[in-house]
């Protein structure tokens, strides 16, 4: 991702006019002013397409509006005008609640337009190019020019030939997906895994919609980082999970030990403890090259050290920036990122770390016990085929359509605590886990799927701690959430 935001202010010289007119307020109307926000969303999709006759209203308006809540009333008026207009509207005239000078109006327009794209990634049909102006001006008591109306012309993306049809398909895809689990963590991980399974990174950089959420939720399922992050936010919005899109730089180390930087987008998610944690679905999705979903970047903090990506902290590799233009302009701020990773609460206060369910091996899906509905839940969540499952418990498989070709892949099912494959976690599993933890002969064979199911805390071995978790679960004091 390399977004290029440039502000080119076309300043109309006022000196000649002012020299021949009175500066008394209300006597002579000042000249209108004009400016350009070039491709504030996506350079690759810049251009205009014919959408005459499209009148479908924007309707999907739920979830967090973090940036909207932190801009002034004029900028909010800009965002409101775009959201409330008929689908495909490109020209807007906004009466400003607080008339301002031209310099401030430029910042208000930036804040309103840019925040729209971050708060509402489901508004995919604008390329980001924006011509704007100020009119209906008057001279203030100090001779300054005050404007009461802002005008906007937003470029429609040329990537969508039928905005209304694409919008309907996107809404259907979002509604069709059902997040698994009852807790916020389970839902967030379900959304994270679903997008990773359903999409593949567009390494060819040929998909014209790769920078929008449509690329991750609709054919050809080929997003880049923006598509991943925006799709994740849209589904979080559906479940009223506060989610903020974050733009900035990624910092990686290449094979020669040299640092490489590039534009990147990821997400911050607010959990029940009111802290914000980072999620980078793009980096966790290694399905194309490794047939693997990682969770190194699922609900992590600034000091969280990844396991499989070089052992660096999240803050070292993700540098957020609130300056969304190349030139100095409106600077956005983000929520404060937690320094540590999210820890899921439990009934007895025994904190099971997020890492306990992280880093599935190649082609594995993990579910909580007694949740065969979790397997069934994947059926229909993938839009071109129905997932099929063989069996219900640990060691069974589920076949899912993946990628742009809709080719099937078979994933192994691991049910936490189910060490005998019956899809339950009960006294039988506890007995086998206890025997395994003390070195007695057990039905849990080394290097089997059952070892993975019994390793509740994710430290690579079955020991007394894992047995304690299973005992708490079977006695009704722990729910694996």
Descriptive notes:
The protein is of the alpha+beta class and 481 residues long. Among the domains are: 6-163, no CATH class; 177-344, C8orf32 fold, CATH 3.10.620. The chain is 27% helix and 22% strand. The protein contains 14 helices and 16 strands. Strand 4 and strand 5 form a beta hairpin. Helix 2 crosses helix 3 and helix 5 packs antiparallel against helix 7. Residues 1-27, 38-61, 347-362 and 370-387 have low confidence and may be disordered.
CATH topology of the domain at 177-344: C8orf32 fold
Shape: elongated
Strand order of the largest sheet: 1-2-4-5-3
Tell me which CATH architecture of the domain at 177-344 applies here: Roll
Helices and strands, in order, run as EHEHEHEEHHHHEEEHHEHEEEEHEEEHHH
Uncertain runs: 1-27, 38-61, 347-362, 370-387
Distance between the termini: 35 Å
Helix content: 25-40%
- The computed structural class is alpha+beta
**DSSP strand count:** 16
Tally of alpha and pi helices: 14
Short structural summary:
This protein has 14 helices and 16 strands.
Question: Can you give keywords for this protein?
Answer:
481 residues, C8orf32 fold, alpha+beta, 14 helices, five-stranded antiparallel sheet
List the helices and strands and how they pair.
Blueprint: E1 6-10, H1 15-20, E2 33-38, H2 73-84, E3 91-100, H3 102-119, E4 126-139, E5 145-156, H4 163-176, H5 184-198, H6 214-217, H7 225-238, E6 243-253, E7 259-270, E8 276-279, H8 281-284, H9 287-290, E9 298-300, H10 314-317, E10 318-320, E11 343-344, E12 352-353, E13 364-367, H11 372-378, E14 388-390, E15 397-402, E16 407-415, H12 427-437, H13 449-454, H14 464-474
């Amino acid at each position: 991702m390399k977004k290029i935001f440039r502000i080119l202010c076309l300043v109309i010289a006022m000196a000649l006019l002012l020299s021949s007119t009175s500066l008394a307020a209300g006597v002579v109307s000042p000249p209108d002013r004009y400016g350009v926000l070039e491709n504030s969303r996506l350079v690759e999709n810049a251009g205009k397409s014919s959408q005459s006759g499209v009148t479908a209203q924007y309707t999907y308006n739920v979830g967090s509006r973090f940036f909207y809540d932190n801009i002034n009333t004029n900028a909010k008026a800009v965002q409101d005008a775009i959201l409330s207009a008929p689908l495909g509207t490109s020209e807007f005239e906004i009466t400003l609640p607080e008339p301002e000078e031209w310099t401030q109006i430029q910042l208000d327009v930036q804040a309103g337009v840019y925040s729209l794209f971050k708060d509402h990634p489901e508004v995919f049909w604008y390329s980001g190019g924006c011509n704007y102006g100020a009119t209906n001006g008057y001279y203030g008591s100090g001779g300054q020019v005050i404007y009461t109306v802002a005008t906007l012309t937003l470029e429609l993306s040329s990537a969508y030939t039928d905005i209304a049809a694409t919008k309907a398909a996107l809404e259907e895809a979002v509604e069709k997906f059902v997040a698994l689990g009852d807790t916020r963590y389970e839902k967030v991980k379900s959304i994270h895994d679903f997008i990773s399974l359903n999409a593949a990174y567009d390494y060819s950089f040929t998909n014209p919609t790769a920078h929008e959420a449509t690329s991750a939720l609709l054919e050809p399922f080929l997003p880049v980082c923006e598509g991943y992050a925006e799709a994740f936010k849209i589904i979080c919005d559906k479940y009223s999970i506060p989610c903020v899109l974050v733009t900035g730089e990624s910092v990686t180390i290449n094979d020669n030990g040299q640092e490489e930087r590039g534009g990147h987008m990821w997400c911050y998610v607010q959990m029940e403890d009111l802290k914000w944690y980072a999620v980078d679905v793009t980096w966790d999705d290694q399905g194309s090259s490794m047939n693997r979903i990682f969770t190194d970047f699922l609900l992590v903090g600034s000091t969280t050290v990844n396991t499989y990506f070089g052992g660096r902290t999240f803050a070292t590799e993700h540098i957020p920036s609130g300056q969304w233009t190349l030139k100095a302009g409106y600077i956005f701020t983000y929520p404060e990122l937690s320094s540590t990773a999210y820890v899921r609460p439990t009934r007895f206060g025994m904190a099971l770390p997020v890492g306990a369910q992280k880093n599935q091996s190649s082609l594995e899906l993990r579910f909580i016990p007694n949740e065969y509905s979790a397997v069934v839940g994947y059926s229909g969540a993938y839009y071109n085929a129905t997932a099929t499952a063989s069996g219900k418990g640990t060691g069974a498989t589920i076949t899912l359509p993946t990628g742009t070709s809709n080719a099937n892949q078979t994933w192994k099912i691991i049910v936490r605590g189910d060490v005998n494959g019956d899809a339950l976690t009960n006294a039988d599993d506890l007995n086998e886990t206890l025997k395994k933890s003390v070195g007695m002969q057990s039905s849990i064979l080394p290097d089997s799927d059952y070892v993975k199911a019994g390793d509740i805390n994710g430290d690579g071995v079955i020991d007394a701690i894992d047995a304690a978790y299973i005992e708490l679960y079977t006695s009704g004091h722990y729910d694996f959430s």
